[in-house]
Amino acid sequence: MSTLTLTNFEITAVDAPLGSVVTGLDASQPIKPEVILRLKQELRERHILIFKNQNLTDEQFLKFAFHFGSLFVPPDDIPVLASKPGVTPVIIPVSNVDGGYTGTGELAFHSDHKWTPYPSSGSLLYALEVPSEGGDTYWLNLNLAYETLDESIKRRIADLQLITYNPFLKQPNTPRSQYRLDKSIPLISPVFPHPLVRTHPESGKKILYLDYATEVEVVGLDPQEGYELIEQLRSHLHQPQFYYQHKWSVGDIVYWDNQSTLHYRQAFDPNQRRVMKRISLAGSHPF
């Protein structure tokens, strides 16, 4: 592990394939430009930053997040978590109480907003209450997942485009016919093909831009061939060598690069409270 001391705080890489912990920084106070630039550099290298021991109002949380980018705002006709027509909350309550979102169940590895034309560049999740067990979040390094593919697979997927269908276009707990298998089903929202191998817009690193469970379609491939390819790639993704597991503490803020990671949440006891707040930042057209 490496540690960098800058002014009065430290950045320490965790013993995992991604992630650095930031200690000694008070996100409620003004932050020097060189500190913000150093944090952005660390995010490019390590994909997630874990800020410890924070105590912020909503206004302070927003001000801190906006050091790293502007707010993600989806198109009106593209629903995302917590959105209603024309309105997406600035701060989304990720909570199993008080009208929050995502409940208490397991959430498969995914990146946010991949079905939109300009997926978010990142998100910050701030922990206010955490369960005594469960509810851990795992992050997965998609650059490492790409780099460890066989060269033959890299060549095969180099120029492929992938449609990710919007999971918020169906009612919870109800089945939906697969668009990729039944072309007679009308699309009730636009779709946006993105590269299966994405280039990170800042680092230039190659990314296997695929999540683990959402319905997808490989553009131009026979449905069965596309299905088999995606299952092969998803099997490759699901390896612990790509993961970091985070056990939350009250006051943690985790800022992750949504372009180069997936995240997964463990289930937890519905009788316990898990209260967090999320801000997502705007991204660019994937290339």
Automatic annotation (TrEMBL):
Keyword Oxidoreductase: yes
Pfam entry (one): TauD
Alphabetically ordered keywords of this record: Dioxygenase, Iron, Metal-binding, Oxidoreductase
Keyword flag 4Fe-4S: no
Cited InterPro entries: AtsK-like, TauD-like_sf, TauD/TfdA-like
SUPFAM superfamilies: Clavaminate synthase-like
Domain TauD/TfdA-like: 24-279
Single GO term (MF): dioxygenase activity
Family: Belongs to the TfdA dioxygenase family.
Protein name: TauD/TfdA family dioxygenase
Lineage, top ranks: Bacteria, Bacillati, Cyanobacteriota, Cyanophyceae, Nostocales
